[in-house]
Amino acid sequence: MYNASMAMADPSWKAFLERIEHAESREELLRIEHELFGRKSGVMTLKMKELQAISPEERPKYAKELNTWKQKLSQALEEAAARLTIPADTVLASHDTLDVTLDLPERERGHLHPIQEFLRHVEEVFGRMGFDVATGPEVETEELNFTMLNIPESHPARDAQDTFWIKSAKKGKDRLVLRTHTSPVQIRYMRTHKPPFRAIFPGKVYRKDADATHSPMFHQFEGFMVGKDITLANMKAVMIAAITQLIPGEVEFRFRTGYFPFVEPGLELDVRWQGEDKTKEGDWLEIVGCGMVHPTVLRNGGLDPEEWQGFAFGFGADRMAMIRHQIPDIRSLFPGDVRFLRQF
Description:
The protein has 344 residues and is an alpha+beta fold. The protein is 37% helix and 19% strand.
């Protein structure tokens, strides 16, 4: 028969306690811990398993005693580990110490590209005025990029020297093109939403231009507001309110008539600004094409122009970012030179 007293008779728990208290290294302490609490052969682990062979009447007594020693030994191991982790003063004195007053090298952190930062600002400004944000594909059909926007087949924008066409087997209205503006999203938006609505359409566009103020790939944000009583007065108010927040300093505005196939009447908005330092004053610069949405465009979007009307506008985001940060050459924005980008 199993002798219950064997649970305490062997081994000597006090001896383990003394070994822990006199341990001189973390390695020695780990060996003692494994000897006591090892998963398969630990002394305490085996003794706890032996409790199952003791009669139910005697088991609580010996289980209590074993648990008491288990807690004492575990606490002793923790205290010894803390003691061995902290070096003695004599050890610290013989080695180099950490100078907590030393300034560490500053860690460089990245940030948004100035164009992306500006586009987020645009979304925030127009969002406060209730405008939704929508996007569309950069590869568009000829129909959506030109025809649905009332751009005639003879328009120069359709010429190969002005537009990047995609080689494909598709013909006619299904021919593919790298979109020349984000205006096709207007048609897509009208066909999937119920008026009245207001939205902006930021994104990349492509044209065969390359100089200090033009790039073959650049960013636009266009938008429109459609309702039953929208007028040019609403458009002027929105344009002035937005640009005042997008361009720092004092800004002057000038609206001129202009021709765009997708609006009637069409206007061009020029600005002249004075920088925050009150010293930089530029010439008039055209930054926005705008006007009342052409009835044909409304019909192509599925709306009745006898019932609905609205205005549309288009900004060059890159040019606006150049004005905001006083960047003289648009080509500086795209190579990814960190020396340039660190300025922002």
